[in-house]
Amino acid sequence: MTLHIETPLVESRAMSAITGRSVWLKLDALQPPGSFKIRGIGYACETYIARGARRFVSSSGGNAGLAVAYAGRRLGVPVTVVVPETTTERAKALLHLENAKVIVHGASWQEANAFAQSLIGESDAFLHPFDDPLLWQGHATLIDEVFRFGLKPDAVILSVGGGGLMSGVVEGLHRNGWNDVPVFAVETTGAASFHAAVKAGHTIELEQITSIATSLGAKRVCEKAFQWSKNHPIQSVVVSDQSALTACERFLDDHRILVEPACGASLAVAYENAPELKDFSNILVVVCGGATSTIDQIRKWGRG
Ligand SMILES: *Cc1c(COP(=O)(O)O)cnc(C)c1O
């Protein structure tokens, strides 16, 4: 048994027509908690239980926290999520719906996270949102499924926040012998911590996050993501918030699935037939999903 589901892999006729290439969608927006995160977090939670954990603790009011809450409910393990005062009512309601205990603490994520860390006892497991080898192993199942399907893409487009998804997808490419398949690592302006790391030659902490794509809002990517940029063909791409928002609206029209701007960033690269795609004819887009946006919010942001 796994906590994630095997998601559909479908061609986007709309994106294929726009780009003149075959564009394939791995629909992880359809995971029960709304994003790919359950792949890695589900795997990590099962591993931590096997090692004796009796409670899961998270400090994410976003999709990582939702995945921990979902995993805990399914496994019968209590979950505590510490979130800052800035967390939306919607995010708290979604966590409650998964039976998580929600503690509101502090003005920033840093304060919430510090409090969460102080709660960790011997029989607790803390679930990091992106920097944990167990997460990457779990995320890699996304590529195992594409491999089993029998489709070898000539490029993969995915979004980067802290770099957990990318580290997992590249691990998946390597464990299936697809070391030669390049990855486009997409971020939004104002959340481009991977772009900054590649430019600087080392990971770097952004002063602040100014993008509306909050799920990409890690100020610093994990070391593993940066290391992969030296051991795998990875190209950093940065798109505007507006491009990500427009892509979300088009995707809802074309595929009847609502995703966060964090995911819209990757979709925008295909919808805009970005020049970076020029050498590729069979492209896989990781539709990473996200449960924290509503269409009203996306339209409001889109109007500026
Ligand atoms: C977490 C998340 C990301 C970024 O993943 P990282 O592992 O932090 O790079 C992208 N999109 C969505 C919807 C997410 O929830």
Structure commentary:
By secondary structure, the protein is an alpha/beta fold. It has two domains: 9-36 and 134-303, 3-Layer(aba) Sandwich (Rossmann fold), CATH 3.40.50; 38-130, Rossmann fold. The protein has 13 helices and ten strands. The protein has helices at 13-19, 37-50, 63-75, 89-97, 109-119, 133-139, 141-149, 164-175, 193-200, 223-231, 241-255, 261-271, 295-303, and strands spanning 9-11, 22-27, 55-58, 79-83, 101-104, 124-126, 155-159, 183-188, 234-239, 282-287. It has a six-stranded mixed β-sheet with strand order 1-2-10-7-8-9, with helices on both faces. It starts with 8 loop residues before the first strand and ends with a helix. The structure holds pyridoxal-5'-phosphate (PLP). Pyridoxal-5'-phosphate (PLP) is lined by residues 35, 37, 62-63, 130, 159-166, 215-216, 218, 260, 262-263, 288-290.
Summary keywords:
10 strands; 13 helices; six-stranded mixed β-sheet; Rossmann fold; 2 domains; binds pyridoxal-5'-phosphate; alpha/beta
